[in-house]
Amino acid sequence: MTGFGSAKEENDIVRINVQIKSVNGRFLETRFRMPREYSALETELKKILSQKFHRGTVDINVSRMAKALTKPVSVTVNTELARSWVSALHELADKFKLSSNISVETLSKIPEIIQFAEMDELSESEKNLLLKVTHDALDACLGEREREGGEQVQTFTHLLNDLEKFISSVKGKKDHLSQELKSKLEERIQTLSDQTVDPNRLAQEVLFLLDRADIAEEIDRALAHISAFRKALKGPTPVGKKLEFYTQELHREINTMGSKTQNLSVALDIIEAKTIIERMREQAQNVE
Length: 288
Known about the structure:
Blueprint: E1 3-10, E2 14-23, E3 28-33, H1 42-50, E4 56-66, E5 73-77, H2 79-95, H3 104-108, E6 114-118, H4 124-190, H5 199-213, H6 216-233, H7 240-260, H8 264-284
Parallel strand pairs: 3-4
Antiparallel strand pairs: 1-2, 2-4, 5-6
Helix pairs in contact: 4-6, 4-8, 6-7, 7-8
């Protein structure tokens, strides 16, 4: 399911902006882009997200703008590198007969000689601010996903109604199919030239073929799956994988119905039912 949410907050020392975007996906994948100051919190943020998201690709973008010096800064001098540069500069001066007035200012402009580093420890107040902004952005994103979920429920409801209509149509033709098959078998029996056929054995074979062609159980199971599908849509827990399972079971029952009957009218109903189930399957892959 898709959704987007953003939030920002600031205090006296820092301004934090969090954007969360989710797109459809069968499994949960979280991708973070945030300042290195927050890298130690990635595991904790993933845990928070996994409690709210169960499927989809979720991108989390965090930006940080310091309004004041928020951490102690250490300054170190790479003396060995500085000594190498002084030696190299003196060598150049001697070789080309140049003045060798090497100043501290000159050395300070050379990369890596003077290094600045902030302490890695994040203040508790900034950590709490980041968590608050993340929760606010998460709530906004979930709000959009819930809105989309409501629209998908409507879509599923229409598809289920259409599917039930075609299955009910097949159910209404079931008795006629049995009678039609029985009549065809009787006609074929009458054409047999061999008059030594055992009537009892023949009756058993006819009953066997009629039983194999009976689709009553498949119809009942399909209607039960539709009822369970509707019930799952009203549940408060994530149902995406459950809905995928129901579509697989519906497809199996419809396929079996199709293999058991040769009737053209029923075959057309089966094709329409398969088309609807395929649309349901595609939708179910995007449901939380």
